[in-house]
Every structure is written in structure tokens, then in C-alpha cells.
Write a structure and sequence with these properties.
332 residues; alpha/beta; Rossmann fold; 3 domains; five-stranded parallel beta sheet; five-stranded antiparallel beta sheet; 18% strand
Length: 332
């Protein structure tokens, strides 16, 4: 089994074409066996680089980054609300602005060092990504229960459908390559106090947002699909595309992949990624008996034997089926 190496995204603001090339080269040079970097969408990036020469400190304490070309758009940031690492390239235009992280883009070693520092800030997320990658590989054989993940006898992670998941914050891909998954009785696992805990839904959603793997089962591209329940996540984590897909499946249960493409206008790759995210948190299913309470009751009469669920389909499934979905007004 090969654990996927987490890919981190770097957003740029105020950079010209030559600077973007330097940033992309630095991102490529910053790759390690534990993570990789790539330049991507500014809004969806894990970290930001802002051009110091084009960054202005506004009277309201916001930052405005001027575009590198006349036809570009400026970026305004409420610096106090920024929830990701930020660094500024030298020189700085605002004399009274002294950010903690600043560097010369032309100095490759300094640029790479900043990205390594960024990755250090995100170490917990990187460790959780590796655990989720291992779950993705193991999930066809993992049922409901408690699990300890051991490597050479040392505890690396704990997975419990009720307690959630926790992983050694220093863990990397190599810690899961030869790890052993050991099933335990409910309540028999202990999570070390210094290990951050996340719900299985949160863990797998985070993984689906950045994984390069195709997480959608092949039959989800051909069979009718059904809505099961809202993701057990904060709604701010859901994009409009996820909400749109859930709304479509609530309105027209049994739509297949092709029908969803036609109704949403989404391309093959974008649709597969959004459905994958909904699949790994148990929000959609290809089994109509799991689509609603009424359908489950009818199926129980026909076939009283319980079906074997995958980890994805059973994960944290305590929300009543048929619950309402609040869709952003922009989708109406």
C-alpha cells in the first residue's frame, strides 16, 4: 500500500508573470517525501504569498494588494481574519508595515524555506491527510468499530466511529505504509491527550478536497444516485457545487452521473470530485434502500437481513434521514 503524499496549494497576489514562474519553481523545489507544493487558486490556497511592493496598509487595517497588470483586480484582505499562513516578498512598499514572514523571491533557498515553514504550521493537517489516505485504502474491509493503527508496535493513530479519529501530529506517509490496523472492542481504545481529535466526516472531507485519487466508486458513475443525509460538517465548508448536487438529488432521487452533468452543467472531473466528497462522508448512496426512512422500512420488509456497510457509508450516521438542506440563495 502506498500512502498518498499531501499536496499543498500556494496562492499568489500581486505577482507578475516572471514572479509567478519563480514562485512555481520554488514550489516544485520545496517538495519532500512528506508533502508537495503547487501554485493554485488564491481563494482555495492553503497559504499565501503577497507581493510586498504592491501591498498597501489601509486606514481600516486591511491590506490591499494591487494587481501586477492594469487589467488585473486588486485583492483586499482583513489581515486580522486571515486563517492561513501568509508571507510577503521584499521590498515592502508600506514603511510602517512589519510582517513576521518576509523574504526575497529571487533567493530560491529563502523561498523554499518559507514553504517548509508553512508546512510546519500545517503538520496536524498533513498527519490527518495520511491517516485518511490509509482509511481510503482500507475502508472496504473496515466495518463499524474501534481501531488502533500500529507501526512496529507503536501507536500511530486511533479510529473510532463514535469518538472520532486522532493521529500522532508528527506522523507522515512512511508511518502508514507498513502500519497494522488492529480492531478493538468499543471503548477499549485510548486517545493520547496531546493528539488533536477530528470526526471521521471532517477527516475524510478534508482528504477528499485535496486528494488526487479518484475516490468515487466506479458504479457511482453508472447507477442511480440518492441523497442520504446532510454532511456532518459546518455549512461553511460546503461549496455551492456540493449544495447544488444535494438539492438535485433531493428533488429528483435516482439521477445518474450523466443526468447530474446535464442538470448542473458540471464537467466530468468537477462532478466526480464533488460526488467523491459527498460519498466519503456518507451523504449519497447508490442503494435506494438507504435513501430515506420510508425506503429503508420497505426494504426491511422485503429483506430483513442487514446489509454490510462500508466505513464511508456508515460513518457518523446519526442524522435522521430526510433532513432538510439549506441551500444558499445564490443557487436559487
Amino acid at each position: 500500500m502506498t500512502i498518498e503524499v499531501p499536496g499543498l496549494r500556494l496562492g499568489l497576489a500581486g505577482f507578475g508573470e516572471a514572479q509567478q514562474k519563480l514562485a512555481a519553481e520554488a514550489a516544485q523545489a520545496a517538495a519532500t517525501p512528506r508533502f508537495s507544493w503547487e501554485v493554485g487558486s488564491f481563494a482555495e490556497a492553503d497559504a499565501w504569498w503577497l507581493d510586498g511592493r504592491r501591498t498597501m496598509l489601509m486606514p481600516n487595517k486591511h491590506l490591499r494588494v494591487q494587481p501586477a497588470v492594469p487589467s488585473g483586480r486588486s485583492v483586499q484582505i482583513a489581515f486580522a481574519d486571515v486563517d492561513r499562513p501568509v508571507a510577503f516578498t521584499l521590498p515592502l512598499a508600506a514603511a510602517d508595515f512589519k510582517p513576521t514572514l518576509r523574504f526575497a523571491l529571487e533567493e530560491r533557498e529563502a523561498a523554499v524555506q518559507v514553504l517548509h515553514q508553512f508546512a510546519g504550521f500545517m503538520q496536524i493537517m498533513l498527519a490527518q491527510f495520511c491517516l485518511a489516505s490509509s482509511i481510503s485504502d482500507k475502508q472496504p474491509t473496515l466495518g463499524a468499530g474501534s481501531w488502533e493503527v500500529l507501526r512496529e508496535g507503536e501507536l500511530v493513530a486511533v479510529v473510532d466511529l463514535k469518538m472520532g479519529a486522532a493521529v500522532d501530529p508528527t506522523a507522515g506517509p512512511q508511518d502508514f505504509d507498513d502500519a497494522t490496523w488492529c480492531v478493538r472492542e468499543h471503548g477499549a481504545v485510548m486517545i493520547p491527550v496531546n493528539w488533536p481529535r477530528a470526526s471521521i466526516s471532517q477527516l475524510m472531507w478534508q482528504y477528499a478536497q485535496r486528494s488526487r485519487r479518484d475516490l468515487l466508486p466506479p458504479h457511482y458513475r453508472t447507477k442511480p444516485l440518492f441523497f442520504r443525509r446532510p454532511p456532518r460538517l459546518a455549512q461553511r465548508q460546503l461549496r455551492d457545487a456540493h449544495l447544488l448536487l444535494m438539492r438535485e438529488l433531493v428533488a429528483q432521487p435516482g439521477m445518474d452521473f450523466e443526468a447530474l452533468q446535464q442538470s448542473t452543467g458540471m464537467g466530468d472531473g468537477a462532478l466526480a470530485r464533488c460526488l467523491s466528497a459527498l460519498y466519503v462522508v456518507g451523504s449519497i448512496t447508490s442503494n435506494p434502500r438507504r435513501a430515506s426512512a420510508a425506503a429503508n422500512l420497505a426494504a426491511a420488509v422485503r429483506d430483513p437481513a442487514p446489509s454490510k456497510q462500508s466505513l464511508f457509508e456508515s460513518v457518523m450516521d446519526t442524522t435522521p434521514r430526510g433532513a432538510d438542506i439549506t441551500v444558499r440563495a445564490a443557487l436559487d
